[in-house]
Amino acid sequence: MELKNHVVTQKKLVKELIDGLYLEVLSEETIESIIEEHACIDSPQPSELDLHINDVSENLDFLLLENKIDEALAIIELEDENFQWLQFERNAPSDVLMLYNSAIHQRKAMLTQQLTLVAEIQELLHQNFRSR
Known about the structure:
Helix content: over 70%
Shape: elongated
Oligomer: single chain
Radius of gyration: 31 Å
Order of helices and strands: HHHH
């Protein structure tokens, strides 16, 4: 009789444990799905200008990495003109314009740094050649 009560108690405890784990997993899945839904709602689709900024930034990064300074300079000049046009002709959101301007200025700084480095290396090579 005592063994039977013990088995019944154990079955009840196992059932409660399984039910509790199931509810915990179910609640975690529900919470994750709610978070995913909010993430989809909260993050708006990037605008055409946002996509353009990303494309230009990637292209400039690639050109600078490949040491294609002339091409990078041409794109930066073109994008400067494009920024001026966007600023005065279109009603682009100010935060996107700031992002655009920041991306272009950051690449300008990288280009300036790269040009300075090239000039310093050429000067060192020239000095080295004269000292021989």
